[in-house]
Amino acid sequence: MTATAPREEQLWSRCAGCATLLYRKRLRRNLDVCPECGVHSRLGAPDRLRQLVDPDSFRPLPDDPADVDPIGFVDVVPYPHRLTAARTGTGLAEAVLCGTATLGGHPAALAVMDFRFLGGSLGCAVGELITRAAERALEERVPLILVTASGGARMQEGVLSLMQMATVSQAVAALREAGLLTVSVLTDPTYGGVAASFATNTDVVVAESGARMGFAGPRVIRQVTGRALPDGFQTADFLLRHGQVDMVVPRRALRGRLVALLAAGRARRPRPIGAAAPATSPPVPRQPTPHATATAVDPPAEVADPWATVRLARHPGRPTTLDYLESAFDGFVELHGDRLGGDCPAVVGGLARLDGRPLMVIGHQKGHTTAELVARNFGMASPAGHRKALRLMRLAARLGLPVVTLVDTPGADPGVGAEEQGQAAAIAENILALTVLPTPVVAVITGEGGSGGALALAVADRVLMLQHAVYSVISPEGCAAILWPDRSAAPQAARALRLTAPDLHRLGVVDEIVPEPADAAHADPDAAATALRDAVRANLSPLLDLPPATLVRRRRQRFRRFGAARAGNRAGAR
Ligand SMILES: [Zn+2]
Fold first, then answer.
1. CA 103 to ligand 1 centroid distance, Å
2. 231 CA to middle of ligand 1, Å?
3. What is residue 70's three-state secondary structure?
4. What pLDDT digit, counting tens, does each position of 468-508 carry?
5. How does pLDDT run across 512-533, given as a tens digit for each residue?
6. Taking a C-beta distance cutoff of 8 angstroms, is the pair 146, 199 a contact?
7. Residues 6+ apart with CB under 8 A from 226
8. What's the number of CA atoms in the CB half-sphere (13 Å) around residue 566?
9. Which among 170, 74, 165, 80 is positioned nearest to 126, based on CA atoms?
10. How far does residue 91's CA lie from ligand 1's centre (Å)?
């Protein structure tokens, strides 16, 4: 890092948010976040790097920008004069600083943009430098982190600057193909050609608190539409709500989040599950419980009434996906959004670890209180939820991470909006994608496995089911309403539907029953979590060494066996 602030550090600065006059050193200590109102002021690339990477670990790439003025651009001053002024003003050679560094000991290549340099605009030199940073990541097989701050493409270089969107995107695609993690960190502001390319086509998109991102700027949109913009338009929280970013992270937590992502993205040559965990993530010792075995239980001698099981499966105290992520897995980093317009609260997912090994966990999320249930739409996924799950499954496959799904839904969201947004197609796409996903998938029915909405997360190499969970083509109430005089016949319907774990185990739909504590999972959530973890570990482990082609072939065979045709010899069926 050669660049330093060219001007003498001023003693005081005025907060752009609350206008408080702040002692500059105090502001620096607080990472340039106003201690009064929390506004994150803009950071130059050198300061940003200092905050993010391990001390003294940054090595700039050797490349220098070539001097270009491809279209001889002159406005009130010639473009070369503007470039010179920007260099003098910032001490930087261009609007991006690229190099390699470690974060929490994890190596990465970084490209950090600087808004002070001609508005962080993307020109031919910036595009080339970021591309070289991506190529370095590929060479060294390390993740790439892009910190964006830009008004968009550099007008002074005409359409050639537009081409840089494709150049850099191509480099991001090469990392994708190589299974290397790419992360963009959106800082304020990120607009135009940068927003529409490498700021958003990375694997994980992190927005710093207060960042705004969009294709068109608010002024342009107001002019074109003639309408007032909604509150918080294009802010980080708006982006999160609309499924555009994975997370909003305050500056003080940014480095830690990136370290966690890099730790998870390093999975290419995995240790087998069950091998000694690395020093950084010791397995939490847990009390052994009599139920914590991973072997299938025999169906209980006295079979409970299936209706009683339905009620247990729906018990509000039953552990949810987020509970299991807290108790059965380590280091959960939640990823949000379908990148198309929504972030469905009924589906949660992200990177987590089991015995120190990174994996992707995706599940339906209900809740324990009425308010939680309402906020999570009772675990009924919208099309956006299914698309988020799909995005995370594909990301897992690219990174070589196994997928664990936790199924607990009464069914997919049956609303008008869901229909308008293509609920059927969204479910269909997930089912199809899972049949060909080239990475191990273990599904656990933890509560209610309701019809197609459940199957959208349950086409797996191994399908496990908690002892008191249910899995059914239709709810007992729904079935009763159709086939009995009325819904009060739900208990009879529950008996007829064969929806309990022992029934489904006998039918081969479920490979293994995960035993629950004596009075069911809600009575002892910790024991339930231990049993779930042990079962996932035992079922995942043998899958890890299988070549993807074998895995996919067996998975398809597994689901093929439920067919009921009676043909002669089917030579091609294996
Ligand atoms: Zn302030």
1. 29
2. 20
3. coil
4. 999 988 888 888 888 888 888 999 989 888 899 999 898 88
5. 999 999 999 999 999 999 999 9
6. yes
7. none
8. 0
9. 165
10. 27
